Amino acid sequence: MRILVVGAGAIGGYFGARLLEAGRDVTFLVRERRAERLRQCGLKVKSPEGDLTFACPPMTLAKDLTHPFDLILLSCKAYDLQNAIDSFAPAVGPDTVILPLLNGMAHLDALDARFGAANVLGGQCVIAATLDAEGEIVHLNNMHSMTVGERAGGRSARIEAVAAQLDGAGFELNVSEDILQSMWDKWVFLATLATGTCLMRAPIGDILDAPGGEDVLRRLFMECQGVAADNDHPPPEAVIERARASFGQRGSLLTASMLRDLENGAPIEADHIVGDLIARRRSKVEGASMLEVAYAHLKAYEARRTRTARA
Predict the structure, then answer these.
(1) What's this model's pTM, rounded to 2 decimal places?
(2) What class is the 2-177 domain?
(3) Is 186 considered catalytic here?
(4) Which listed residue (46, 63, 186, 299) is catalytic?
(5) What would the pLDDT profile of 233-258 be if each residue is shown by its tens digit?
(6) What is the pLDDT of residue 286?
(7) Looking at the domain 182-310, which fold is it?
(8) 176-207 burial code (b ≥16 CB/10 A, e <16)
């Protein structure tokens, strides 16, 4: 199976490197600047699960795509989605399977509109990784899992074939028979974590130590749960209990990657992770919406960032 990994950044680069190490037929679709960096320095991964180095990783530019791939692994940031779609479109044939690992749901709408829902799987990943100043991928802890599934539910010959390629590649692979529920469960957790830590500019432990901080997290989590329920995907009790444990852990240094991006003055996924969640709300929120307050905070950051860039 020919696999095209869109990008060689923190997420795509990490999982692509693991697949490459396992002997899979992987090609990275990169921009010219990243391609030049990889030619000079190679693809390097620093990880508690084992470092990897590929002096000459297989890669291609969008202009050089001439034939369809069997599987396209997509893990870009949401604000880069349209550019990514345009770049890999020539690699999509009638039998190509697209596996997006983005958070939220809006990317499914965009991919369906361009390539058809039948070509797009559901997927998600759990990993903390970043690019350092040298362009090397740094895996920050031991978590590195991927969950995939047919959006219609159940198991199919297609998902089994995809899983066979992804399994045994040095990271945890799960095949979900209800991938949309899995994606909603992560979205609820991530939206709570992102809005809470960005709004308070602090990790979970510091928020819990602040007067009223625990209530802020509780209200955010309840609102996010409510949106999931509005869309027929309420988190099961086991998921709720795990999330409550995470959001109630004193001394926790847990933050969202969105906070790290915000503190570094980088683009953030405010609309995709928070704005789209609010747009899907159907039930009325009693009192002030903490989710809307947090979203306004994120949009104010984006407005200031845009104004500063233009100055």
Answers:
(1) 0.93
(2) alpha beta
(3) yes
(4) 186
(5) 999 999 999 999 999 999 999 999 99
(6) 82
(7) N-(1-d-carboxylethyl)-l-norvaline Dehydrogenase; domain 2 (1.10.1040)
(8) bebbbbbbbbbbbbbbbbbbbbbbbebbbebb
